[in-house]
Design goal:
- The chain is mostly beta strands.
- The chain is built from twelve helices and 67 strands.
- The strands form 17 sheets. Strands 49, 51, 52, 53, 55, 56 and 57 form a seven-stranded mixed sheet that branches.
- Helix 2 runs antiparallel to helix 3, helix 2 packs across helix 6 and helix 3 packs across helix 6.
- The protein starts with a helix and ends with a helix.
- The N terminus and C terminus are likely disordered.
Amino acid sequence: MRRWLSVLLALFLLAGSLALNAPAAHAGSLGVGYDIGMGFLGAYNTDVDGRQAYCADLDADSPFAQTSGPETITSLDSLSRQQLAELNYVLDRWGQSGDANVTSAVALYVWSVTSAGTYNSHGMSGDTYYVGRAPASERGTILANLSTMRQQAAVNAVTDPSLSLALDMTDQYNGTLTVAAHPDSLTGSASLTNAVFADGASTRNLAVGAHPITGTPADGVPSYKIGASMNIAAAGYGAALDLYTTPGAQRLVAAVAGSSTGLSASVESPVIDLDFQPEISTQVASRFVAEGDAFVDGLTVSVSKGTWIHLDGNPVEVTATGTLYGPFDEQPTESDTPPAGAPVAGAETVTLTGAGSYSSPGTIIAPESGFYTWVWSIDKAAHGENAKYLTDSFTDRFGQVAETSVVPFQPVTVSEADQRLAVPSDALRDTITVSSSNGVWLKKDGAHIPVVFEGTAYQVPGTLPPAQNTAIDSNAVPLGTVTVTADGPGVYTSPSVVAPSGGFVTWVWEVKKSSQPEWVRDYLANDWADDYGINVETTSVRWPITVTSLMREYNVHPDGRAFDVATVSGFPANHGDFTGDGYWSPDLDVLRHTVYGPFATDTELTDDLDLTTAPVLAELTTPARNGVYKLGYTDDDKIVPTEPGFYVLVTTFEGDDRVQPYQSSPADVLERFYVPPTGTEVPVSVITQATPEAAVGEPFSDTALVQGTKIPDGAYLVFRAYGPHPAEVGAVCESPFFVSDEIPVTQAGIYHSGTTIAAEPGNVYWVETLYATDGDVIAEGKCGAPGETTVVTEQPEELRVKTNAVPTVVLGEAAHDVATVTGTVPEGARLVFEAYRQHTDEALCTAEELVFTSAAIDLDGPGDYTSDEVIFDEVGTYYWVETVIDEDGLILHRGLCGAPDETTIVTPVPETPEEPGTPGELAQTGADGNWWPLGLAGGLIAAVTGGVLLFGRRLAIARERTGYVREEDEAFEEFKAQFEGAKED
C-alpha cells in the first residue's frame, strides 16, 4: 500500500505540474451573425484577442475548442497572393462590424474564396445556397453587401502596399516633399525637421502628391538639412492574413491587425549651404548741414533673405560703402544709378555685423553749398571667402530725398552806386551783383530760390566821405530801406531813395533770414551784410551853394570903379581842407567872379547869354568857402569899365566831388551896372526879378531895379500880384490879390515889394508900375514878363526841415538858428535846436560837444521857427542840429551834423573896428555925387553888417529851389530822454 501511495502522489504532482505550465485555453464562440437552424452564418469570436474572425473551412467542425493565434500568414492553401490581398481588404474594412447583415456577407465572401469547391457544390450559386442560413428578410441586404465587397476588393486590394518620400529643393528654403504610396489612396501623418508646410505647421496628414515646404534653419547657421518622415496605417492592404487555429475544427481568418499593418518612410536632404542678403535704407542725420560740418547718415540694415550668418559664434562682417554725390544745385531726380559724371564729395565705409541701426563715420566735411545725396552699396566680390555667404551685391537708389542733405548757400552782393555824384532830391539807386559766396545758388522745383536783399541808404555824418568799416557809424542817418528780390545770381537795380540836401550817402546791403519767406530760411547759410562806407557804394550828394551879391551902385562913369559884395553860403564848413582820398577828388577852392561887358542894351542880359563869346572886363577869384567877399575894393581886384554900356558880374564855381557846380544868372538885376555914354541921359526904366518859387503859405516877393538919369520927384512904385493861376492857363493879370504900399522912388536903385503868401498852388504873375507924383504911369511891366512869375507849389506831404544859422558872430554877440518847416506837421510836434562845439576837423555832434539846447518850440504848421539866442563863450566853430519830435517823444527828423548853413563861426573881438566909408565917399569912387543911390547903399550896408534875416529868407528860397531838404532821422536817445518830461505838457 505504501508503494501505491507513492505512485499516486507522483502522478498527482505530475498532473499539477502539467496544469500550471499549459497555455490558457480559449474557445471560439459564435459572434455577430444569424443562426436560424440551418447552420450559423456570420463571425466567430476568437476569444483570443477580442476580435471577430471568419471560418475558412466550410466543411470542418465549429471552433468551439481551444483556439490559438493569431499567426500572420502570407500563404493559405492554394490561394493566390491577390486573393489573400482581397481577403485582407474585405476582412479589414467590414470584418469587425456589429451588423449581422455585414458579417453575414463577410462570411459568404470568405467561404467563396477559401472553400470555393464546397461553396459552389450544391448545384446552385454558393451565395444563394448559403445566404439561406439568414432570415429571408435580410438575404437581399446581405447579398448586396457581398456584391459591394467584391467590387471594392477587386479595385482596392493590393498585394504589396508601399510608401516612399522624396525632397526636392528649388532653392535654399523652398522645396517640395513628394509622397508616393501604393495604393495611391493611402494617407498618413508626415513630420518635417527644419522645415514647415505651407500652413506653417511641421506636421500634417498628407495624401499622395507633391507638397510645398519651406526650410526653417536655425538663425545664423551657414548650412542645414531638411528631414521628412511619414507613417501610414495600411490595415487591410497586402497579401497576408491573421490565422486562428482550433485542433480538429475549422480555421478562422481575420485581417492582419495592429502595428504590423503600418507603413513608414523617411528622407533627408543633402546639406544646404545658406547665404543671406543684407539691405540698407538710410535717413540723413540732418536735412541741412552747415558748411564745414560733417555729413552723417543713419543706416538701417535689414536682411531680405535668410538670417545673418555666424561662423564660430561670430557674425560674418559685411562692408557697406557709402558714396556721397554732390554738390548739385537742386534735389537730384531719383534713379537707379547716378547720372554720368555726377560729382563725388567723398566715400565712407561701415562694417555691418547684423541687422540694426548704424551711423556713418562723419569724415566727409561739407565743402560748399549744394544738395548732397548718399548711395550705399555692398560689393559681394570684395568679401573674399565670405562672399559665398552673401546672396548678391546691393546698391540703393540715387537721389532719394531721405538720403539727401542740403548745405545752405550764402547769398551776397557786390554793389555800386548808380550815381557817383548827385544833387539833392535825386533818385539814388544802387546796382547789385548777387551771387552765392560758398558754392552754387540752390534751386527748388527747377527755379532758383528767391532771396530778399535789403539795402539801406545812410547819410554819412559830417561832410567828409565815410571810412569803410564792418560796423555802421552810430551817427549815420538811415534815409530809407529798399528791397530787391533776387531770383538767382545776376545783376539787379534797386528801387530809389531820395537824395538828401547834401553830403555823402552810402549803401549797406544785407540778407536777413528772418526777412525771407519761411520756406526759404533753411536754405540760407547765415545772415550777411556788407561793409559800411565802401567807396563804390557811396554817392556824393553835392551841396548846393548860393551866392547872393549886390553891386554897390548901378551907374558908373567911364574909368570909374564898380564894387560888389558877394555873400557865399552852402559850402561845407571844412571846404578847401579836404585833399582827397584816392577815390574822392580834393576840394576845388576857387570861386570865379567874371565881369562881362559892355553890352549895348540890357535886353542882352538873359539867362541864355552865351558867356563863351561875351566880352570880359575883369576876372576875380575868391576862396570857395562860405563868407562875405568884397570885390573891386583893392587895386589888385579893381573893376574899372572903360567903355559905355551894360555890365554884369557872374560868379562861377566849377564844382568838385562835394559841391555842385554853380553859376549866377547873367539876368540877375542885382549884379548889373551901367556906364552911360558921356553927356547922355539914361531914360527911366524898371527891371524886376520876382521870387521864382515858393510853397503854399510861404512868403515870396518881387524886387525892382529902377534905372535912369533923372527920377522925377515924388515918383513911387506899386507892385501887384495876380493869381495863382494854373500854368496851362497862361498869364492872366485882371484882379490882383496883393497890392504893395506906395514905395517912394527917389533915385536909381533896388526896391522891394514886401512879402505875400498864396493859399493855393499855381503861377503868380507880378506887374510893377512906376508912377509920377500926379499918378501918371512912368513905366509899367508886362503881365507874364520874364523873371516876373512866382511858381507856388503844394506843401510837400512829408515833413521837411531846412535851416539857416547865423554864419558868423563876434565873441560876445548872440547867435541863433532858423528852421523853415514845410510839409505835413503832426499835431503835437515840437522842435529843438542844439549847438555843438567842434574841436577837430571831424564833424562830431555827441554829448561831449553839446554846449546848447534850446527850449522845445511847438510847431503849429509850416513856417519859420527861430531858436533862442545864445552867446557862445569861446572862439571857434559851432555846428547846429535841429530835431523834430512828435507828441510821444519819437524823433521825426534830425539834422545832419556839419551841414552847410548850420555852422556858426565865433571870431575874436577885433582890436580896432573898421571905419565904414560914408555913402558920399563911396559914391564919388564910382560916379558923380548926383548918381549916388542912397537906397542901394542902404541895402549894401544892411547885407554887409547884419541884414541876416533878409539874406536868410532869400537863401532859404534859393535852397528850396535847388532841392535843399533834409529828411534824415537818426537815433537820438539822449535828446529824447532829455525831453521826456516835455511830452507830458
